[in-house]
Automatic annotation (TrEMBL):
Keywords: Signal. The keyword Signal applies. It comes from the Bacteria. Residues 1-26 form the signal peptide. It comes from Streptomyces citricolor. This is Dihydroorotate dehydrogenase.
Length: 96
């Protein structure tokens, strides 16, 4: 006869396994998520910005580091994105 304790153990093992497998699967898209966060952040705050310029800037900032940040920032500022939004977007673009 199946007891309640056995059912609880099966549920706990199933949840633990799902979380473990889900954690492994969830790590893969993170590498591309940072430039996306930059892109959506900038366009949410400056809807008139050119999406192609914003995409190029966010991809330029993706490697991280000072040079990538400056490249991203300069591209966004050329498109008249306000300085604070450009800086915050470029920080979000850096894949860490």
């Amino acid at each position: 006869m199946i007891t309640m304790r056995f059912v609880q153990r099966i549920a706990a093992v199933s949840c633990g396994l799902a979380l473990a497998l889900g954690g492994v699967v969830a790590v893969a898209p993170v590498a591309d998520a940072s430039p996306q966060r930059c892109f959506y952040y900038v366009l949410e705050n400056v809807p008139d910005a050119n999406p192609e310029t914003v995409e190029a800037a966010c991809k330029a900032g993706a490697p991280g580091g000072e040079n990538a940040f400056l490249a991203c920032y300069k591209l966004l500022r050329k498109d008249y994105v306000p300085a604070v939004i450009a800086a915050n977007g470029c920080r979000r673009a850096a894949a860490e």
